[in-house]
Amino acid sequence: MLVMGIVAPISFIGLVIFIIGLFLNRQYRKRNSRFAKSGWFIAVGIISSFVLAMVFSAPSDEKKDADQPKAASVNKEKKAEAAIKANEKAVAEEKAKAEEKRLAEEKAKAEKEELEKQEAAKLTQEELAKSMGLEPITVGRVVDGDTLVTSDGRKIRLVGVNTPESTTRHEEYGKEASNYTTSKLNGKQVWIQKDVSETDRYSRLLRIVWLSVPENDMDENEIRSKMFNADLVLNGYAEPSTYPPDVKYSEFFVKFAREARAANKGLWTFGDQGTTMGDLDSTQNNHTGTSSSTGETSVSSTSGSESSNTGNESFKNCTEMRKVYPNGVPSTHPAYESRHDRDKDNWACEQS
């Protein structure tokens, strides 16, 4: 810029001299001037103009030459920056793949550990169930509140409890009890446990039903939370009904029934006698020896004892009774005799 500032005025002066030389030369030819050396002015003007051209062209070339390395440097920097970004992207992608692989491996490891844990727990549960005599079964269908059929066709009667009838005869709250048992057991895998007796007179298996395997089958908390027989009593769907020698859980059932009765749950909303026969009835129970005033249970040592007729009607056998009472009679009926109640369900000569 400094060189241009100095040379440009000089070149302008050369241009003026050149124009003056042309003017003098023209005047000389017209004989208007005696000055014959106008050619010198023209020559000086041309030289000045040439110098002007050289001054302006040289810096331009120099600038161009100077800009070329700069452009090359910029391009180089851009390429280097692009290479860095490409490398960073490749590194990021590699890290992402490595992280994804790590997470997949961790997930697979966790799933494997969980599977192994479940298998170990299953083995432990099977061993625990075996130690307490529990057998796994699948419930095929529910007959009523206290009777069910397994998927392989075995009929099971729940031990120690009695739900209101809902099949051959109907008692208050029987349908509700049947529906509840269906909702809890139908199609489910459960565990059954024998107390003492194997079957009743109808060849039904007499069993306790556990919803899950307990760690201690005599722990009250586990009985409350895992045993279905107890669940029925606790929620007012069944009354305790004890028949020796199957008395392992009778005291628990009586305790639970008192709790349900005090809370007016289920069948107890119909009164202190419930809606079916059981250990808490105010009348003397032949099968348990229950006190009429307190409901305390004193289980007898035998299951085959028979009482005399509670009323003034007596029949030689169930065939004779059914001629008068086709569906049998309950224990509160004058014609009831315990010798006709072979399954000890407080209903004599019912239709099986």
Could you give a short description of this structure?
This protein is α+β, with helices and mostly antiparallel strands and 352 residues long.
Care to describe what's here?
With 352 residues, the protein is α+β, with helices and mostly antiparallel strands. Among the domains are: 1-62; 127-264, OB fold (Dihydrolipoamide Acetyltransferase, E2P) (Beta Barrel). The protein is 48% helix and 11% strand. The protein is built from seven helices and nine strands; from the N terminus they run H-H-E-E-E-E-H-E-E-H-H-E-H-H-E-E. It has helices spanning 2-29, 38-131, 174-185, 220-226, 228-234, 250-262, 318-324; strands at 134-144, 147-150, 155-158, 161-162, 189-193, 205-210, 239-240, 329-330, 347-348. The strands form three sheets. Strands 1-2-3-6-5 form a five-stranded mixed barrel. A two-stranded antiparallel ribbon has the order 4-7. A two-stranded antiparallel ribbon has the order 8-9. Helix 1 runs antiparallel to helix 2 (38-131), helix 4 crosses helix 5 and helix 5 (228-234) packs parallel to helix 6. The N and C termini lie far apart (124 Å). The model is unreliable at 284-311 (pLDDT under 50).
Topology (elements, then pairings):
Blueprint: H1 2-29, H2 38-131, E1 134-144, E2 147-150, E3 155-158, E4 161-162, H3 174-185, E5 189-193, E6 205-210, H4 220-226, H5 228-234, E7 239-240, H6 250-262, H7 318-324, E8 329-330, E9 347-348
Parallel strand pairs: 3-6
Antiparallel strand pairs: 1-2, 1-5, 2-3, 4-7, 5-6, 8-9
Helix pairs in contact: 1-2, 4-5, 5-6
